[in-house]
């Protein structure tokens, strides 16, 4: 578990996951202080013990008041069950869809500990004015992002993510520290893999959604799967606007994995 300050009163808790054939994918959650303590997502499921321990080093879990759950995927809900127990004063901010999906599994969220938001809501929560939005790219229909209007910090969930060549890339202080060609490749592949529907989406409608993000003028954009974007957001948006016209990225099948294993075996002998 890696921790670093990524914006005033915002600390990232990060795991790095090595994804075969893709690269190193950061899984970031964020702790907000400076108001009522709030957590944005709850980490990668296999790292949940370390996650809760590190979170407890940063804040008293009894003081954790809000957990924004951007969607119900396993890299965002890792510690939710533990935190429902160990952070008894926390209320989960999420969407109706995510509440329902969580209720279908073994990590249900009690409705009385839930605060529902949807795209376009503006809510005052914990001393912050949060605007909820649906990111332009997402892999789960329950996905919600938020902008903290008081600071301009945007939390955009899976959107903008990229698997990168090294763990150090995934933990960079600023996405500008990543080599441009590696960032571009990783972001386009991730966009295709995480949101395969983008290849049948209307380019015009995607562009409208990307422009809406730019119009929010965030001071920093914090993705679950990318180092902080502090400048040049328009470059990321222009890049992702090309996705509908691109061919879908190929993910490995059994033959690919066996061929890769054979190469490794030959190199070892
Ligand atoms: Fe996801
Ligand atoms: Fe994710």
> What is the average of the pLDDT values?
96
Q: Beta-strand percentage?
A: 15-25%
SSE topology string: EEEEHEHEHEEEEEHHHEHH
Distance between the termini: 35 Å
Please, how many helices? 8
Which cofactors or ions or other ligands sit in this model?
fe (ii) ion
Backbone CA Rg: 18 Å
Count of strand segments: 12
Helix content: 25-40%
The profile of the biggest β sheet is: 7 strands, mixed
Q: Runs with pLDDT <50, length 5+?
A: none
Helix/strand-derived class? alpha/beta
Molecular shape: globular
Q: What is the spatial order of strands in the main beta sheet?
A: 1-2-3-4-5-6-7
Describe the structure.
- The chain has 269 residues and is α/β, with parallel strands linked by helices.
- It contains eight helices and twelve strands.
- It has helices spanning 48-58, 80-86, 96-103, 167-170, 180-194, 203-215, 233-240, 254-268, and strands spanning 2-7, 10-19, 23-32, 38-40, 66-68, 91-94, 114-116, 122-125, 128-133, 145-148, 153-155, 220-222.
- The strands form two sheets. The chain has a seven-stranded mixed beta sheet with strand order 1-2-3-4-5-6-7.
- A hairpin with a 3-residue loop joins strand 2 (10-19) and strand 3.
- The mean pLDDT is 96.
- One fe (ii) ion binds next to loops.
Indicate the topology:
Elements: E1 2-7, E2 10-19, E3 23-32, E4 38-40, H1 48-58, E5 66-68, H2 80-86, E6 91-94, H3 96-103, E7 114-116, E8 122-125, E9 128-133, E10 145-148, E11 153-155, H4 167-170, H5 180-194, H6 203-215, E12 220-222, H7 233-240, H8 254-268
Parallel strand pairs: 4-5, 5-6, 6-7, 11-12
Antiparallel strand pairs: 1-2, 2-3, 3-4, 8-9, 9-10, 10-11
Helix pairs in contact: 6-7
This protein binds fe (ii) ion (2 copies).
């Amino acid at each position: 578990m890696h921790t670093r300050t990524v914006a005033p009163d915002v600390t990232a808790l990060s795991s790095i996951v090595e994804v075969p054939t893709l690269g190193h994918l950061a899984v970031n959650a964020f702790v907000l202080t400076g108001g009522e303590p709030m957590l944005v997502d709850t980490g990668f499921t296999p790292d949940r013990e370390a996650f809760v321990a590190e979170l407890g080093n940063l804040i008293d879990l009894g003081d954790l008041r809000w957990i924004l759950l951007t969607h119900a995927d396993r890299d965002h809900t890792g510690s939710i069950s533990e935190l429902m127990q160990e952070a008894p004063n926390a209320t989960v901010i999420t969407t109706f869809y995510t509440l329902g999906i969580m209720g279908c599994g073994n990590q249900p969220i009690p409705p009385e500990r839930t605060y529902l938001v949807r795209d376009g809501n503006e809510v005052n929560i914990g001393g912050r004015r949060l605007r909820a939005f649906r990111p332009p790219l997402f892999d789960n229909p329950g996905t919600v992002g938020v902008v903290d209007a008081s600071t301009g910090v945007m939390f955009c969930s899976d959107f903008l993510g990229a698997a990168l060549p090294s763990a150090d890339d995934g933990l960079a202080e600023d996405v500008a520290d990543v080599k441009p060609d590696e960032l571009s490749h990783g972001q386009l592949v991730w966009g295709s893999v995480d949101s395969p529907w983008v290849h049948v989406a209307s380019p015009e409608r995607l562009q409208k959604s990307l422009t809406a993000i730019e119009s929010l003028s965030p001071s920093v954009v914090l993705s679950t799967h990318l180092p902080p974007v502090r400048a040049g957001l328009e470059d990321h948006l222009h890049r992702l606007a090309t996705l509908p016209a691109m061919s879908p990225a190929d993910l490995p099948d059994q033959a690919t994995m066996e061929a890769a294993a054979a190469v490794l075996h030959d190199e070892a002998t």
